[in-house]
User: Fold this.
Amino acid sequence: MNELRKKYQEKIIPLLKDELKIKNSLAAPRLLKVVINCGTGQALSDAKHLEAVIRNIQNITGQKPIKTKAKKSISNFKIREGMIVGVKVTLRGNRMYDFVNKLVNVALPRVRDFRGLTGTGFDGQGNFTLGITEQTVFPEINPNEVDKTHGMDISVVTTAKDNKSGKALLQFLGFPFQKAEKK
Assistant:
C-alpha cells in the first residue's frame, strides 16, 4: 500500500474527525482524483513542442496524457475547431497518491521563491487548483534537455463539501499553505 494512503487511513482520518467534528470516519473528506492539464499553444506552429509536452507529462505522471481538442474556432488565436490545444491526465488510486506525495515533498520545495500556497485556489466545494510555471521542478525532467519551458494546472478533487474541510484535508496531507497574516 502507498505510504501517503496508509498515513491518510491511520493518522489523518482521526485528525480530520477531531477538527471537523465528524462522528463517522467514512464522512471524512478524501481525495478523489488529480487532474493535470497543460495547454500547448505553441504546438500550433511547432509540432515538436506537442511531442515534448506529452513526453514530459508522461514522465512526470507515469501515465500517457490524452490530447484535448478545440471545441470552437477562434480566429484571433488562429485556432480551428478540432485542433489539438492541450493535453491532460487524470490520476486516481495509487498513482494519485504517489503524485501528491511527489508534488508536496519534492516539486513545490524546488519552486523558485516559494513562500507557500495561497488559499485562493479553492472553488467553494473543497477542490483546489494550482498552477506551476515550469515543468523542471519535477525530478523526472532533466533541465539540460528542455528546449522550451511550459507550465501546467493541477486540480486536486476531493469529497469535501466546503473549502474549510478541503483545506484541512490538504494541510494534513502536507500541502504548504501560507499562514494568514494579521493586520
